[in-house]
Structure formats: C-alpha cells, structure tokens
Specification:
Layout: E1 11-16, H1 20-32, E2 35-40, H2 43-52, E3 57-60, H3 69-78, E4 87-91, H4 96-104, E5 109-112, H5 117-209, H6 215-224, H7 226-258, E6 266-268, H8 270-280, H9 282-285, E7 295-299, E8 306-308, H10 310-342, E9 357-364, E10 369-376, H11 383-386, H12 406-417, E11 421-426, E12 432-439
Helix pairs in contact: 2-3, 5-7, 6-7, 7-8, 8-10, 10-12
C-alpha cells in the first residue's frame, strides 16, 4: 500500500465519477480527513491512473459513458497488479440486483447516493484497515513459508548427509572386505591354471610313454572320464577367471562410488563415476518379465578432470539412473496393462517396451562447464508435474515406491554445492531427460 508514517496522511484514494460536482464534493471531504485524493472522470482515465500510481481504495460510480463501473471493476480485477485494490461502488442505483452485480464483479462495498460523509469515511477506513490486516497476514504467511522451506531444506540436507555417511562407510567397508580375498583369488588363478596345465601335460606324457596302463589305472581313467576332465578344466578355469574379474570390477566400482578415502573436493574423471553407478545397477538393467534388457547408450565427450565432491556427484548419477530404470519399468507395466485391457484401441501400446534405452551424453561446453545428460525412452513426465520434481518429498512414483528425496537431494548437490544447474525435459510418450551442468572448476578449490 501507499501508506506512510505521516500523521496527516491516511491513504491514496482514487475517485471515479463522470459528474464534476460529485468529484469536487468527495475530493474536498476526503482531503479534509487527511487522504490524498486523485480524480478520474471516466473509466479509461481511472485505469490509466491505477497504472501510474496504485491507489489504496477506489470509489467508483456505476453509470458512466463508454465504460460503466462494472466494466472498470472487471478490468481492475483481471489485472494482477490492481486485482487486490478494494473497490467501493457509489451509485444512485438502489436496486438489489445492482448491488448483487457490484459484488459479483469484485466490489467490496456499496454506498447509495445521496451519501453521508461520515458513512463514506467510515467505510473507507474499514477497507484500508482490512487491507492493512491482509497485507500483514500475507507477510506473516510469507515468513512462515520461508521458514517451512528452510526447515525442509535442512531436513533434506540432514537426511542426505546421514545417507551419504552411512552409504559411504557401508560401501567402503564392503569393498575393503571383499577386496582382500578376491585379490588373493584373482592373483592366484593364473598360477592355478598353469599348475593344472602342467599336471595335464604330465598325464599326457605318461600316456605316451606307457600306452598300456595297468588294469587299476584303466578303471580310474574310465570312471573319471579323463579326456572330458582335461578339456573341461580349461573351460572351468576361464569361467572362474572371468567371474573373479567381474567381482574385481565391482569392488573397484564400489571404491570409486564411495570415494571414502579421498578429500571432499577433488579433481576426478566424471565418466568413472557414471560407469561405477552403472556397475552397481547392473542387476536392474537385466531382462524382466515386463521388458527386455535395458540398453545403455554412451556418448561420452572428451572431458578433462572435473573438480567436484565426487561421492556426492556419484550419488546424483545413482539417483538419476535409478529413476530412469524405474520409469522404464513403469512404462513397461503400463503398456502391458493397456495391451491386455484395450488392445483393439491401442495396437501400438507395447512398442515402448520393445527397446528400452538409457542414453548418457557428456560434453564440455564453451562456457567451461561440463554437461551430463541422462535420458530414457519411457512414458515421460506430465508437464504439470515438472515444476515440482525437485521439491522435497514430491514423487511421481506409486505409493510406497519413492520417498521424494532423490531429486531434491540431487538439486542441492548440483545447484547449491557445485553452483551448477539441473533441469528436466520431457514430453508425453517421448521419455524424460535430466541435464546436469556444473563448472569445470570450483572457486574454493583454486
């Protein structure tokens, strides 16, 4: 409002009436009471005056040429800037329907001509006091909303910190415990294979030197099927070697993901973090009863080392990849449900589950930032929901399948901790793409 602290100033009143005598009368009466008064002879002048200086109260006549009071009020209420200004109608019309229409178009009060000065002053003061009260309530509501948003942010941050510490310790502990025995197995498999081959060679040499074995040896050779065992040993050793190598890759991925033994901020290879998250999610990428295996399409750009909080950024990759897999799973379930219920109306409904994909792109921009995009080809996200995706505790997943914290935590990590940006781009039936962009260097690291 335009109220100030001067004792002789009570507010800014705009009087709109096409009768000059009425304008002079109202202006003189209100000015004597300490109000600042502006006058308008018609509706268009009134709208222009409101745009120049927003009044605290408008006294509005109904019967005016070109644009009557009802039309003026409707124009005022349709404009976001003037919508909250209280409008008091002053008119000689005393019919109940006229009064009802005045309130329907947005008027807050109605004074019938001829009016009493004390009545007009009293009603104006009531509206100004009410408006002041509304503004105070709105300010308090804004403060409460800010406090609530801050509390939610603190809760999310606390949850994230606890999760990261617990997850980092758990992952690092598992990686450490598994690393020792698997290193022993992996390191000795090569020697075991060589020793077995030596024994096979010795047996072959014996067979050449003593082509006629004893009855006992012939019986043993027949029982164990020596030819099959010697051939299958090589296959077994190859399988064991590949299995041990896979476990070793998982251990390395766990170590890269947790980064438990590294400084909080460090120059790292972003691609290693993404690959580590993919290794940990390998079991979710496999074929299910609802869909084929999810294909991972990588389009990695040439990136230098990026200064970041590695473990937390890895957490973002994990959240986004998990969400992409969830979206593809849900898309497959929805498509199958539509196929079974209304196949004749939706013959192409199952196309979404034929080739589920997650496309990962990275690039170095001209602005010296790193951009990471993770996209799926699921059902997408409704436009009405996209503005709330990064709010704490908001989730698009079915009840019981999401906490609504993953994207909120990701937003805090990317935007607040890395001074970056995260955005979602999605259209119905065309999947969703989440794009992260962070600076190549962080100021506090330089």
């Amino acid at each position: 409002m335009n109220l100030n602290n001067k004792n002789d100033y009570k507010g800014n009143i705009l009087v709109v009436d096409d009768t000059p005598n009425n304008l002079r009368l109202l202006s003189a009466m209100l000015t004597s009471q300490g109000y600042e008064v502006r006058k308008a002879l018609n509706g268009k002048m009134a709208l222009t005056a409101c745009r120049v200086v927003l009044p605290d109260v408008i006294l509005l006549d109904i019967n005016m040429p070109e644009m009557d009071g009802y039309q003026v009020c409707q124009e005022l209420k349709s404009d976001r800037v003037t919508a909250e200004v209280p409008v008091i109608f002053i008119s000689a019309l005393d019919d109940v329907l006229d009064k009802v229409k005045a309130f329907e178009v947005g008027g807050v009060d109605y004074i019938t001509k001829p009016f009493h000065g004390a009545e007009v002053i009293s009603r104006i003061e009531n509206q100004i006091n009410l408006r002041l009260f509304q503004i105070q309530i709105q300010e308090k509501n804004n403060l409460l909303q800010d406090a609530l948003d801050s509390l939610k942010a603190v809760q999310v941050q606390q949850i994230q910190n606890e999760k990261m510490v617990a997850l980092g310790q758990l992952v690092a502990g598992i990686a450490h415990e598994v690393n020792n025995p698997i290193s022993f197995i992996y390191g000795n498999l090569q020697y075991a294979g060589e020793y077995i081959q030596d024994l096979v060679n010795i047996i072959a040499a014996y067979q050449q030197e003593y082509p006629q074995p004893t009855t006992k040896i012939e019986k043993i050779v027949k029982e164990v099927d020596l030819n099959f065992v010697t051939k299958d040993l090589q296959t077994l050793m190859g399988a064991m070697y590949r299995g041990a190598d896979r476990i070793r890759e998982i251990v390395i991925a766990l170590q890269n993901f947790s980064r438990h033994d590294e400084a909080l901020m460090k120059q790292v290879n972003i691609h290693e973090g993404i690959d580590s998250a993919l290794v940990m999610l390998q079991h979710r990428l496999r074929e299910t009863t609802h869909r084929p295996a999810i294909a991972i399409l990588k389009e990695y750009g040439s990136l230098p080392l990026v200064t970041c909080y590695a473990s937390e950024l890895n957490q973002v990759f994990m959240h986004l990849l998990n969400n992409a897999i969830d979206a593809l799973d849900q898309s497959a379930i929805n498509s199958q449900t539509r196929d079974s219920q209304q196949n004749e109306h939706c013959p192409n409904a199952s196309l979404l589950i034929q080739n589920p994909q997650i496309h990962i792109r990275t690039e170095l921009t001209e602005a010296n930032t790193v951009k990471i995009a993770i996209a799926d080809n699921g059902l997408g996200i409704e436009e009405s929901l996209q503005s709330s995706l990064f709010n704490p505790f908001f989730t698009t997943k079915p009840v019981g399948q999401g906490s609504g914290l993953g994207l909120s935590i990701s937003y805090q990590i990317v935007v607040q901790k890395h001074r970056g940006k995260i955005a979602c781009f999605s259209s119905p039936r065309e999947g969703a793409e989440f794009v992260i962009e962070i600076p190549l260097e962080q100021p506090e690291y330089l």
